[in-house]
Amino acid sequence: GNSVTQMEGPVTLSEEAFLTINCTYTATGYPSLFWYVQYPGEGLQLLLKATKADDKGSNKGFEATYRKETTSFHLEKGSVQVSDSAVYFCALSGDSGAGSYQLTFGKGTKLSVIP
Amino acid sequence: EAGVTQSPTHLIKTRGQQATLRCSPISGHTSVYWYQQALGLGLQFLLWYDEGEERNRGNFPPRFSGRQFPNYSSELNVNALELEDSALYLCASSHQQGVGTDTQYFGPGTRLTVL
User: pLDDT tens for residues A32-49?
Assistant: First the structure.
């Protein structure tokens, strides 16, 4: 079945530091890949997505490239801010059988950015 | 454009009771997904509804059920509540799978506490 392995935190960085959160996946076929962010006490917000190999998703300074050869979708940001403190989830959407496209999530990475 | 809405925000029940959670999708979306986010268990897929029909369910007992109404809103019912049902329940909506984008957009969630 589909699975997502995500670097577990917590991760603590100083403001303006470089961020990488690793994510690898297992899936049949050609899944779509997503990063969602969850701020304290809130639901999930879509951060970025990529739907095919070599696509790069980007938003708010965050980037991730769909690498089929390494089955990875690592999240990066060149300079983090305190406001980026949140939990980040890597997810995939692929046919899990019977044409069902529910999301499969990693366990989440909690990021804390200190001034 | 209004996002996915969920009600109530918080729900407190006792063991053995029933809980009903509600979700309104983004206008134009026909698919509704339910996920459970329990402490230590991550995000797990519960149910998928599309065009009024249950299309798939995750690995949850039958006391988790629901329905989708003609206006595409959805209800999640949890019968015979157990302490371990305490979690954040997230609803997501998307266009019908296989038609257009497969991105799921999430609501703010309902926090269910079972005492």
Answer: 999 999 998 888 999 999
Q: Per-residue pLDDT tens for B11-44? A: 999 999 999 999 999 999 999 999 999 988 889 9
- Which residues of chain A lie closer than 8 angstroms to B98, CB-CB? 99
Q: Which residues of A touch B (CB under 8 A)?
A: 32, 34, 36, 42-46, 49, 51, 89, 91, 93, 96, 98-108
| Nearby residues of A41 by Cβ (< 8 Å), 6 or more positions away | none
CA distance B48 to chain A (A): 7
Dihedral sign, Cα of residue A65, residue A68, residue A69, residue A72: positive
What is the residue-wise DSSP string for chain B?
Answer: ----EEE-SEEEE-TT--EEEEEEPPTT--EEEEEEEETTTEEEEEEEEETTEEEEE-S--TTEEEEE-TTS-EEEEE-S--GGG-EEEEEEEESPTTSS----EE---EEEEE-
Query: How far apart (Å, rounded) are the C-alpha atoms in residues A89 and B42?
Result: 10
Contact between A112 and A11 under an 8 Å Cβ cutoff? The reply is yes
Subunit contact A43:B104, Cβ cutoff 8 A: no
